[in-house]
Amino acid sequence: MSDDLIQRLCASIQKNESMMMADLSLFIEGVAQRQIAVENIEKWLRSVHAHGISVDETTALTRGMMNSGAVLEWQGPKNVADKHSTGGVGDKMSLILAPALAACGLRIPMLAGRGLGHTGGTIDKLESIPGFNCDLTPKQMQDAVQKVGCCIAAQNDAIAPADGLLYAIRDVTNTVDSIPLITASIVSKKAAEGLNALVLDVKCGKAAFMKTEQDALALAESMVGAAKGLGIKTVAQITDMNEPIGSHIGNALEILGSVYVLQGKGSKDTRGLVELQGGQLLSLTGIASSLEQGIQMVSEVLENGEALRFFVEMCVQQGTDRKVAEQLANEPTHVLPKSKHVSSVVATESGFVQSIDAMALAEVARELGAGRFSMSDSINHGIGYVLETSKNQHVSKGQSWVLVHHDIPLSPQHLTQISDALEIGIRATPEFRRLIRIVT
Ligand code: URA
Q1: What is the pLDDT of residue 277?
Q2: Could you tell me if the CB of 222 is within 6 A of ligand 1?
Q3: Of the candidates 273, 302, 330, which is a domain's last residue?
Q4: Residues 88-94, mean pLDDT to the nearest whole number
Q5: Which of 86, 90, 292, 318 is deepest in the core (most CB within 10 A)?
Q6: Helix, strand, coil shares, percent, the chain, to 5
Q7: pTM higher than 0.90, yes or no?
Q8: 382: domain range?
Q9: Does 184 share its domain with 269?
Q10: Residues 230 and 290 reside in one and the same domain
Q11: How far apart are alpha carbons 146 and 148 in whole angstroms?
């Protein structure tokens, strides 16, 4: 049965004809129940990768994958929301956004992933907080959101299990970089959270999955189309991922940078992105009457300590001892894991920072233990960077511009790579903007 089904599906894809929706549903059900032979799944993935599929088919695939596991159900107001980022360097937004939006009255049942390639993962970052447990069942997620307003849990096989198997086979068949497959993978897991609103941060640039604006736009349009097709109010923000986000990069260091922003201090760049994403969700859910008002609401809860209070409650709900969570909020450096050494790297000439190469920094950090080369590698949570400058600031020759947190000695090659990541010029460049465009 599976052979005939795959033959029909692949023939339609190759001829650019619509797949029969009933066949597509049977296929996804079969994948989820492990009833389709791996070689048949491989054939289907290769056809989709080579020929593409339509927006309607992508939406149907996404719906099927969403329904392959638990779908969270919510009573009451239509204020259940979340964000997905395609992954960056220093991208700590979720850690701040979930409690900030809960403080603004939204419900945020966030599922997040571990680091992929050079990009960090929210779950790895949270695991640097003592006691924090990301392994929640769908029921525990619902209870946490009911009690606290937000939770951040690791993706698991209870939600969209068809994605787990398809992703593993995509990985070995080199079919990961297919826009419909990426769309269905990402949106099915978000849709299974039972969302009313979704903001998608599609990163674009040297340190992003999508290197060009054209590719980022194609992915953004596809994901917005599928999510809207499932009845979720959705907006994508295409944002720059050439420069690292904010001042802190690395797992525990990004928790530290997040706490500073939750304290109403910290990096303006990080805070600006959180406000933009949060403002968009408050506007999509109708809690704010405009994006600008939403941005203002997020700014207020960062200033008045409410977002930080919700962050503490989220940590306690997910297993951190209350005293530790409170100390994390007040004196984060006393709680978080640290590296053995901190070394400065200095500017080799004077001038204005033209750019800081996020990809180069991420690659070295991964070699120093901040990231993985295979899924079985463990993470060293204390490793990373604190940037002491940013694009367009003036630096003088000999001035420290980055603190490298490391355990193993820095090799001459590491030092050269880090040093070369800073590009200096005689004039400041035009004002730097994270947001490139919005896709609705
Ligand atoms: N992240 C996912 O969850 N799925 C993809 O296909 C790519 C990135």
Answers
A1: 98
A2: no
A3: 330
A4: 97
A5: 90
A6: 45, 15, 35
A7: yes
A8: 341-425
A9: yes
A10: yes
A11: 6
